[in-house]
Amino acid sequence: MTAPDASDGAVGPQQDSGSARRSFGPTVAIALIIGTIIGVGVFNLPTSLAAFGPISLVSMGLTTVGALALALLFASLSRRLPADGGPYAYARTAYGNTLGFLSAWSYWITAWAGNATIAVGWVLYVEVFLNKDHNRFVSVLLVLVGLWLPALVNLAGVRRMGLVQVVTTVLKFVALAFMATVGLFFVQRANYSPANISGESTAAAIGLFSYLGVETVAVAAGKVRDPDRNIPRATVIGTLATAVVYMLSLVAVFGILPAGQLKDSTAPFSDAANAIFGGSWAGNLMAVAVIISGLGALNGWTMICAEMPLAAAHDGLLPARFKQLSGRGVPAFGVVTSTLLASVAVIVNYSGSGGTTVFTTLVLMTGITAAIPYALSAGAQIKWRLADRRQLHGARFTRDMVIAVLSLVFSILFIWYSRDTSRTSWGYWAPFLLAAGALLCGLPVYRAQRRHMVPPEEVPPWR
Hints:
This protein is 70% helix and 0% strand. By secondary structure, the protein is mostly helical.
């Protein structure tokens, strides 16, 4: 994978907005998928899953099946409706403005809360070098730096954003590929026993966070050249490549480190690298790779944080401020507002918990809010394919329906399994309470925007 040339990412300040909107070629599109999926979630997953034991690898396998089904779903939907907003556009076209608003609002929460989550996980690796005693105040400051640096990159323009995305994607993929290959030679079978430590596993909901991003090229469809061709290919290729290195690297880390050490680790991939080579230099090198990975993911997701409300604002579902572009062709209001909300989420959550607890709670919350637009997208595909069934060949109809039903079932299960079983009392339902509070904040916005909403477009012909 190479850095984008002028046609992949060049957007001059004097270009019109239409030219600026079609600035991502296939290289950047694939990098966006891989770069937003691979953030820091997978690098912190072994610690989050250690409480369940190696049985959680089975849950991750099932989650991978669900993620691949979602990738195929969005690939198919993007061919039919290559519109800005992805899941939002599908829900609005299929069901109208009310469910379209729910999809847009829920996905926007996922994006900025997901950024907060990535930044929290990112800091756990930064603290391999800085703030080693995990002082909470310093941790919050470092998280805020992690949130605002990518925001500044995005505000600088699309060309710089695309270049950063490709470079960081290459580095993070190499780090995971190393653990997925070399790490397997250092696995000890004894570390896989006992398989189920907790007696139950809700690991699938935690694992979902590591696959958030399969839809990002569809969300940013307006930035992709030849969207009919590039969006489906980038979605499937990027998700498949990520799934392979995910599963193999997690198998390696669980086999390299004993469960007790894994559970208490704040940087499990660094600890696994140290176990392979001895000393601390390898772990430090891995930590640097994860830090770069996190910045790359934050860079991509910061763009997505602005793209979804931009699409909704064009249809009148969100305030007009979200669709205004800066002189560099960037929806700056969406970038700044989303980063501010992510900053508030971090500060509020750190006020009562430490880094690993905050990470898990935010992961589960974003699982809930992501599953809503995923489920609505699957429902849109089912609705449209049932209407198309007389024109479709039997094999294609069956394939698309199976993928859509699988995506819908996985989305519903992800919501149910987002309870925090590692905590008691209100903490058990904390992800649901946080998600519900964020969703309810959308009610006054919806009421204020109702008179500005334009009717959805007609459903495009089947493809």
